[in-house]
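Q: My collaborator sent me two sequences in one message, no labels, and asked for predicted structures for both. Can we handle them in order? The first one she listed is below.
A: Yes, handling them in the order given. First sequence, followed by its structure tokens:
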Amino acid sequence: MTAKDSTKERGDAKHKAAMEKQKAKIDSTIAAADTEQGIAVLLTGNGKGKSSSAFGMVMRALGYGQKVGVVQFIKGVQLSGEEIYIREKCPQVTFYQMGTGFTWDTQDKSADIEAAKRTWAIAAPMLADDSYDLVVLDELTYMIAYKYLDETMILDALSSRPSNQSVVVTGRGGGSALQDIMDTVSEVKEVKHAYNSGIKARKGVDY
């Protein structure tokens, strides 16, 4: 055996041992997770991709024939690819938008609060309906941050939803109380953004 072959053999053995150790750890974690129930996911942070990730889960749920509801807070003035696709290709998805656009565009707090209340009146029944496998509440965190909706009311609805139902909440912030009741919290961090280089938002990528 040459020195090169010997080095490769040691490297292969080291890699195999490391992968065996990793597999044992993963298998142990999977075995310990034996509770069957819906999960609550919060996708937050200042980076791009929170809503995109949520709609990825919508597609995943639809792949299994599950019932899905999507409620978008804040968004709705500018047409988006996900709205076009769901409305045209996925009529089985319950889809509702607040439709006022971003709060910094409207600059009308009273109107925004009323719109938020109307939108919550659509979302709340979904969270109480055990026929929904997945409910996405896109940009809900802003409703808490701006105090457009009562935080306790939102947290209670999320916590008391049917045990089989999963929910995804997206948006920046939302506070520690929201994070505390969620099962999975992922923070999307912005490292770079095309906007800052003067690149316009692109259809099919940004909206």
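Q: And the one she listed second?
A: Here it is, processed independently of the first:
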Amino acid sequence: MADLPRYIELYESGELERRVLALEARLESCNICPRRCGANRLEGEIGSCNAGKLIAVASVCAHRGEEPAISGTKGSGAIFFGNCNLRCVYCQNFQISQDPAGQRHHEITSSRLANRILHVQNDLGCHNLNLVSPTHYVPQIMRALLEAIRHGFRLPIVYNTNAYDEVSTLQELDGVIDIYLPDLKYSSNSIAMQLSDVAHYVPSARAAIKEMYRQVGDLQLDEEGNAVKGLIIRHLILPNDLAGSEESMKWIANELSPLVTVSIMSQYTPHNKAIGMPPLARSINSAEHRRVVNILDVLGIENGWMQDSSSQEYYLPDFNAEGHPFERG
């Protein structure tokens, strides 16, 4: 019999319910994310993330386009949450993340979210539960998990985030989340402000990712190559090095470990407001892609995947003519 998820022990001891209550109390003057806007979301006030008390769920599906260890052969049970605490000008899901009026039609209670969580396991048969953009709904998601576990939910949980997360909120997820899948978007606060309308992204995201790594450590796979626990850091290459890829990769190698699994994403194409912004109004080119591969080679980061810029398929690259593959540790 497979080992039970760590959250079962928290559930059985009553600790999970204690954490749910503590998180819900923080919605009265919301400090769930680093914006700490202070909205009374328990009374329906709308926070800076454009979310209130109810949960906007844009879609639920068996997602087969994630990293191979996440999607596996049966797909990742992705629940896409509406609204966001960032305002990325190039967001490819801007209809979901930046249309609060539209998302009002998709708002549900935590009890109904629990039903969707069980649907991922019992009907879709996915490898895991993939919470996509969950940051601003952590209390409500935890309430839904509490109910779903009571009704037999047992899948590994993926926390798929932009990394603009509050460390104190993440600490309440210790032992609940099995796999953290954060973006590391920028290495410059000024660029983050220009492109995502967020102050202090870099120290906030780095502190959050450090906490994630403390909780789950390096990526662990089962016999079939599916992720069961650990950290995968995503990094989207932007045109004209707006993402500051080299500095971010150096931070991972030096402040976390060269063994950390990274997913280098080359899928950038102009969306949303970026279409009219010259620095962002083009896809990345092969030289920009290769430069990041070379950075990984120099830093000795060898665990993870690259993404092909044309097909968006993930692959394991050779770093040079002698062949140093991006391989599983």
